[in-house]
Specification:
This protein is mainly alpha-helical and 97 residues long. Helices cover 77% and strands 0% of the residues.
């Protein structure tokens, strides 16, 4: 997929704004059931890693390979990466100063 195509999908998602029902319907139509499930699992991996859960425990609980969890861990430790930035943003929303 070209950069322009990816930006177009991002623009569509941004324009949906806060309509969670529409966003869920869009993602359900856009992704196969397997892709949708994998995205949910990968995000769960990131949240569990951020919560301090052991990598082997995550792999076992979610039924994924340790390499998948390790990749998530590596991405999570990238302070400039999307996972860390999103988690920080969510934490600010959940716990404003």
């Amino acid at each position: 997929m070209s950069t322009a195509n990816i930006k177009n999908v991002i623009d569509v998602i941004i324009n949906i704004k806060d309509d969670k029902v529409l966003l869920e319907a869009f993602l359900t139509d856009l992704l196969t059931p397997v892709e949708y499930t994998e995205i949910k699992k990968r995000w769960e991996i990131i949240k569990m890693l951020d919560g301090g859960v052991n990598q082997h425990e995550i792999a076992k609980k979610l039924g994924v390979g340790i390499a998948t969890v390790t990749r998530g861990s590596r991405e999570l430790h990238d302070v400039n990466g999307g996972f860390r930035k999103v988690l920080n943003k969510i934490k600010k929303i959940d716990h404003p100063k």
